[in-house]
Specification:
Length: 164
């Protein structure tokens, strides 16, 4: 994975876990973060499939979290520098993957061969599911997932929309 995607993945996963936090203690937070990071990694690899794509996002920047904050009601969280590296499309695609296991499996299958283990995204156990109850809740994620759902389905070669 190109190095230019690392700040996008880190910031977007952080935005997701802050917007849909884990209920519980540090273990739940860590498991929630792993699931968010796996979903964001898959989404970023699909969105920026070539080294040139990753270079361009590294130069231009992904756009930031402002619109996502407005949609989720998280405005005013502060001007932390990492927030400018949040990618709205990647966050939306990750939300789609987190809320639909079948779509997540198709997305991982569509990736070119490479490093990555996505067990917690694809087959979360009971502990994972409890830790990410908000992060994986289709109703809570629907506004974020709906932003760019069609473009994800188009990238995966599907013409239909996700079930509500």
């Amino acid at each position: 994975m190109p190095a230019h995607l690392s700040p996008v993945i880190t910031a977007t996963a952080q935005w997701l876990t802050r917007s849909f936090p884990a209920p519980g203690g540090p273990l739940s937070a860590a498991l929630c973060e792993i699931q968010a990071r796996q979903a964001v990694t898959v989404a970023a690899r699909l969105r920026y499939p070539t080294p040139m794509d990753a270079e361009l996002v590294g130069l231009a920047g992904p756009g930031g979290a402002a619109r996502l904050d407005g949609i989720t009601g998280a405005e005013g969280l502060g001007p932390e520098p990492w927030r400018s590296w949040v990618d709205e499309v990647v966050a939306s695609w990750a939300a789609c993957l987190l809320s639909d296991a079948g779509l997540a499996a198709r997305a991982v299958a569509a990736l070119p061969p490479g490093p990555g283990e996505y067990r917690r995204l694809l087959s979360p156990d009971r502990t994972d599911t409890r830790a990410a109850v908000f992060l994986r809740h289709p109703d809570l994620l629907s506004t974020v997932a709906g932003l760019h759902e069609r473009s994800l389905l188009a990238r995966l070669g599907h013409g239909s929309t996700l079930a509500a």
